[in-house]
Amino acid sequence: MKEQLVKAMQRGQFINMMYVSKSGEITKRRVKIIKVVGDSFTAFCFTRQAKRTFIMNNVLAIVPVVRKERGVV
């Protein structure tokens, strides 16, 4: 998981992730990773429109967001 997060940060990719909060609520977030430190990471959360710190053990799944270029026909 950590390696995937570091790669996404280095590439400047957005990530869709399923996350379990401290209260046990499962949420879907779109984030851009800013910093990975130890067992946590800081990211800009587009759901909350704020910089947040996430615990890696609470991440259920991550998927890089793939943006396709539109071609002119």
Detailed description of the structure:
With 73 residues, the protein is mainly beta. The protein contains one helix and five strands. It has one helix spanning 2-11; strands at 14-20, 26-37, 40-45, 50-55, 59-64. It is globular, with a radius of gyration of 13 Å.
What's the SSE blueprint?
Elements: H1 2-11, E1 14-20, E2 26-37, E3 40-45, E4 50-55, E5 59-64
Antiparallel strand pairs: 1-2, 1-5, 2-3, 3-4
In short, what is this structure?
With 73 residues, the protein is mainly beta. The chain has one helix at residues 2-11; strands at residues 14-20, 26-37, 40-45, 50-55, 59-64.
What would the average pLDDT be, to the nearest integer? Answer: 90
Distance between the termini: 40 Å
Helix-strand pattern: HEEEEE
Global morphology: globular
Helix content: 10-25%
Stretches with pLDDT under 50, minimum 5 residues:
none
Task: From the structure above, extract its key features.
mainly beta, 51% strand
